[in-house]
Amino acid sequence: MAGDILLCLTLGLMSMSLVDLEVLAKSGTPRDRKHAAKILPVVKKQHLLLCTLLICNAAAMEALPIFLDGLVTAWGAILISVTLILLFGEAGKGGELTHDETTIIAGALELTEKTAKDAMTPIHETFSIDINAKLDRKVTAIWLSL
């Protein structure tokens, strides 16, 4: 059970965007501000957070055979703990990805093949006005007619 709690904490805390949390801390509802302010210092130290959660998760998984050793023989404790971890622990969930996760991964891999030119708009497709021009109905009408 402790392993499952740590797994949920790992997924939940490591998936939070620092920018989103900072926005919530400054401009969210009072309840969101309060929660974001509590979580932000923890999530800002991502490497420390990840190491702490992984070490605690490993300790929880290692504690199972130690606990079982008092109830059954040593080889029985190892067999039961490995089976339970494979059935209910991280190893059983390791290969499963949701549709959203596969979309995110595919998008990230696609970025490795893109260049800056792919993200840029050709100059002939842009609209610009003089920096001193007044943005009035005439300029807006020209812009909308394009």
TrEMBL record:
This is CNNM transmembrane domain-containing protein. The chain crosses the membrane at residues 71-89. Residues 1-146 form the CNNM transmembrane domain. Keywords: Membrane, Signal, Transmembrane, Transmembrane helix. It comes from the Eukaryota. Residues 1-21 form the signal peptide. GO terms for biological process: intracellular manganese ion homeostasis; magnesium ion homeostasis. PROSITE patterns: CNNM (PS51846). Coiled coil: none annotated. GO terms for cellular component: cytoplasm; membrane.
